[in-house]
Amino acid sequence: MMALLQSLPPSAQEIADVIGRERTLYLIGQLPRSGSRKWRVNLYVPKRVNPDHPLVRMIGWDDANRLVDEFGGMILQPSNCNFLHREFRNREVRRLRDEGWSISAIADAVEISARQVFYLLADASSD
Fold first, then answer.
1. Sign of CA dihedral 79, 80, 85, 87
2. Whole-angstrom distance, CA of residue 67 vs CA of residue 56
3. Which InterPro entries would you find in this protein's record (predicted)?
4. For residue 87, which of 34, 80, 93, 95 sits 20 to 30 Å off, Cα-Cα?
5. Where does the chain have alpha helices with state H?
6. In 3D, which of 35, 30, 23, 12 has the Cα closest to residue 83?
7. Which pLDDT belongs to residue 87?
8. Distance CA 94, CA 65 (A)
9. pTM score, two decimals?
10. Domain regions of the chain by residue span
């Protein structure tokens, strides 16, 4: 059985060790993708932040300063952690179907096509 909280990749875990898992995933979700390497995002951590710095606006003063203390002056490229979102979405698709939702209603709820829902459910039934 799959663990509910899957491990983060080391590139994201180093940030989570400083500000926590939930804040790390939130931060990564706010960052732009890195050119041709869509599995990575870029995060420049300045040596100092002021209250209106984008990093402070994203995660708050305390967490931004924790990152500055640990990584100030560095460019981090953590994994985008999309696999965590996909696993959550796939579990939700199966849960909603078990509750009797139609394929089109599930598709609307999780914002994917009905065809994707159909294939996810077909793949899950073959396990």
1. negative
2. 10
3. Homeodomain-like_sf
4. 34
5. 10-19, 21-30, 54-59, 61-71, 82-98, 103-110, 114-125
6. 12
7. 86
8. 40
9. 0.70
10. 10-80, 83-125
